[in-house]
Structure formats: structure tokens, C-alpha cells
Amino acid sequence: MEYSPSDLTQRERYKVLTSFVLPRPIAWVTSQGADGVVNAAPFSFFNVFCEDPPLCMFAVNRRPDGREKDTLVNIQRLGEFVVNLTDEPLARAMHETSGDFPPEIGEPDYLGLKLAPSSRIAVPRLVEAPFAMECKTWKLIDVNGDRQLIMGEGIHFHIRDELWDREAMRVYMERYHPIGRMFADRYCRTDDRVVFPAAEGAKTK
């Protein structure tokens, strides 16, 4: 079957894209309000895009009633945030932070998630995250007035000690159990892995 996006509603386009572009990594973004309240929210329209400079991007849409989400308000004010990644032990807490919290109630505080100061920005990171990237806003891109693409430059990395081989500069995959987003309330584990030999390319005579 085929669809032209222009023939679908916004919700229908969302359902098509999120049903097939998966699993998607999840940016568990911490940001800080003017009153010091730390917000944590997950975004699965997310990925990293290059290493020089280290850039990531995630999308923030408006709430159903048209209000801007706390994450966007905080980032527009401060120009910085932390992208925390999620593994299996943190998956349920990450999911819970997708619920509706008023600006004066910080998800980490409410759910008992531990915070730690970042090294180069004011926004705290989640202590238990397997990987956290302190970011400065690189660019904001408005999409149709109802969504912002937030591009951040990673300026400092935090890695859980037991996950990283410092000499080989590689992750210990048998110790790292990231969670991916599918669609709706569905997530996936990533422990069923396949390894292929190096690609040979075109064979010439």
C-alpha cells in the first residue's frame, strides 16, 4: 500500500512513522526552570548526528492545549540541557516521567531519582544514567509553529564506570542494556544482537 503524507492527518502520519522507524533511542532530557526546579522528560524523536562537533537533536511539540512544554521553556531560557540515556533498570522511571507534571513539580524529585551537578553547565544530570551528555543549545528550528527541533552540542560526557573500556574506547556490550522506544506505551530491550563479519565490498578481478 502507499500513502501521500498530504492525504493523512498529522496523527496518522505520526502513527505511520513511529510504527516503522524503530526502535528509536530515547533522550531523557534534564532541564532547569527559573525557580531551580529540575525537569526530566523523555523524547524518542532523537538521535546524534555527528562527532565534530558532537551534535544531537530532539523534537519537542506543544501540549494538547497548546502550551509549550517545560523542557522547551527551560532550554529557551538557559540555553543548556543534559541528554541522559536509559537502560533497563531505569526504564520504568523514564516512562513515568512522560506523565503530566506541573512546572513546580520536578520529576526527579517526585520519583526519587538522584541528581548530580554537571561539570560545565548549570543543569544537573541523572546520577544513575549509563551515559549523560551535557549540552549547549546549538540551534533551534521552528516547525510549523507547533514543534521545535532542538539541536545541542555535547560539551561534556559522563559514562558509568563499569560500562566503558578506557583502553579500547569501547562499551562493554554485555553490561549495557539500553531500552528503545517502539510506539504508544511499547518499548524494546536490545539484548538479542547479531554480529556480521566485515563487509567485503565489490570484488574485482
TrEMBL record:
**Which Gene3D superfamilies does the annotation name?**
Electron Transport, Fmn-binding Protein, Chain A (2.30.110.10)
Query: Has UniProt tagged this entry with the keyword Metal-binding?
Result: no
Q: Which SUPFAM superfamilies match?
A: FMN-binding split barrel
**Cofactor(s) for this UniProt protein:** FMN
What Pfam families has UniProt attached to this entry?
Flavin_Reduct (PF01613)
List residues of the Flavin reductase like domain.
19-178
Keywords linked to the UniProt accession: Flavoprotein, FMN
* InterPro entries noted in UniProt: Flavin_Rdtase-like_dom, Split_barrel_FMN-bd
Family membership noted in the UniProt record = Belongs to the flavoredoxin family.
What's the name of the protein?
A: Flavin reductase (DIM6/NTAB) family NADH-FMN oxidoreductase RutF
Origin species, per record, is Bradyrhizobium elkanii
